[in-house]
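Example A, followed by Example B.
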Amino acid sequence: MAPHTPRRADGPPVGTHRASMMDRLSKGVFYLPIVFMMLFFALPMALTVVFSVFERTMFWMEPGFTLFAYENFIFSARLTNFLSSMYYSLISVAICFVLGFPIAVFLRKSVPQVAQHRVVLLFILPFMVSEIIRVFALRPVLQRNGLVNTTLQNLGLIDEPITALLYTHTGVIIGEVMSFLPFIVFSGFLAMEAVPKYIFEVCDDLGAGPVRRFVDVILPLAAPGIFAGCVFIFVNGLGVALLPNILGGAGAVNAGLIATQAIAALDFPLAMAVSAIMMTTLMTLLYIGHRLFDLTKILSPIN
């Protein structure tokens, strides 16, 4: 005889009511991150665009509509500095790709699967240290009497210290590579993790050389992950003000430093305009990448 299901006097069985509450709770937990992102990401980003056309006051800004902040950015040296920082960020992206993506391929191809995630963790560990500490620690390494110059002089490779390593655009590029290299390794590894290992064996059986295999097989399959990592490095190279502030010279200015200087000068609409331009750049790159590579495939298994 089936056990009797307890009922409330005027409603459905208690078990059904409890299951309904759990179902609603689970849906609420699912929507919680969406609400959080809307409140603390999407809404602030939209307000950034709105505030960028407000009129500047002595200490804040007031509602209105003016493009003076954008004109102030475009028709000044700030635009030149912004385009220059984009150029040097692209160099950093290229260096990170050349150094980092082969590591991701090596991890996927040659390291046993049980140890792959542990090795990737080694590249994530530096991010547990404060960014300002990581960047500032490069100064005694790159300075005129630092570790690099001293080592090269002791080996007899140079006669005089290399002064271009610090307080120049080269120093900023080195800082960006050291700061963001793990991202291309991590995103590249995620993309390669969706590639079955037998792909490498098939390429070997067909006689494909390393260059042909890399260009015709690995790059197309891992393109979404590579693009995502490159965009992250590029945008951070534009936006992290610490790097040109600590490692760059007088001419090393990026968008983040421009916005920081605008805030220090109490020119909040200009800071909002710079932020809006950076946000538009990011969204444009993501849209192009999604159209070209379908970024949703980063974690999808490849058949």
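Example B, a separate protein, is given below in the same form.
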Amino acid sequence: MDDSRWNHTLYQTQAINSEGLEGHAYVPDGIKVKTSSPLNDHAGTNPEQLLGMSLSTCLDATLEAIEHERKLPHISAVRVKVAFIGARANYEFLVHAQIKIDGVDSQTAKAMTKEAEERCCVSKLLKNSGNYTVETVTHFDD
């Protein structure tokens, strides 16, 4: 890796999968997850679920920090939907995040959503993909 930022990280981890989609992914000395395709009924977690959990956790943790800065209790929740679309050799994910912030007016909730979207590391990775959207909601879609 030629990027010198690797020399000044706050935290690093690695995830390993050497078994493919129907196998296991793991973090050395950490979590081990059975993996499976979403297109079958085999037990396991799929990449769509892992991406959704990563984004929802990052966005809500970022919102929690924003709430703390505004001297608010933790009042936000995040729901992420991930869809697997396409055809062989041209697959894509569609990712849609809904952010619900109770106890503040609509304008404040939208401003906090925008700030979280700009600060969340996972959101930053996804934002220029063309397949990622975020909205502020008063209730989650079913």
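On Example B: The helical segments are 47-69, 106-119, 121-126.
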